[in-house]
Amino acid sequence: MNEKMRTVLCPRCGKSVVWSQANTFRPFCSERCKMIDLGAWAAEEYNLIAEEDQPLSEETNSTQH
Q1: H-type helices in 1-65, by residue range?
Q2: Which CATH number does 1-47 carry?
Q3: 17 CB-contact burial (10 Å; exposed 0-12 / middle 13-18 / buried 19+)
Q4: Where are the domains of the chain?
Q5: Are the C-beta atoms of 11 and 28 separated by less than 8 Å?
Q6: pLDDT above 90: residue 14
Q7: 29 and 19 in contact (C-beta within 8 Å)?
Q8: Is 14 helix (H, G, I), strand (E, B) or coil?
Q9: What is the pLDDT of residue 54?
Q10: How far is CA 35 from CA 28, 30, 39, 53, in A?
Q11: DSSP label at 57?
Q12: pTM
């Protein structure tokens, strides 16, 4: 295998991680970082920005019946 291994940064600690099937915690570097990140979501430390002022599209309205 002469393919160059793709690496990403762990979203929790910033460590360089090889993106492969062998890394069961990807994109995290370890189970510890994965669980810390999950805990942050559970504690509502992350927020997703929503634009509530805009009306729903026709497609969205028709699927909500």
Answers
A1: 31-42, 58-63
A2: 3.30.50.10
A3: buried
A4: 1-47
A5: yes
A6: yes
A7: no
A8: coil
A9: 62
A10: 10, 9, 6, 34
A11: P
A12: 0.63
> Above 50 in pLDDT, residue 63?
yes
Which pLDDT score is estimated for 26? 92
- The residues facing 17 across adjacent strands are 8
| Helix, strand, coil tally for the chain in percent (to 5) | 30, 10, 65
pLDDT of amino acid 2: 40
Integer Cα distance of 62 and 65 in angstroms: 6
Give every CB contact of residue 20 below 8 A, 6+ residues apart in sequence: 5, 6, 26
Residue type at position 60: T
* Model confidence pLDDT, tens digit, residues 16-62: 999 999 999 999 999 999 999 999 999 999 888 877 776 666 665 55
Q: What is the rounded distance in angstroms from the CA atom of residue 38 to the CA atom of residue 55?
A: 32
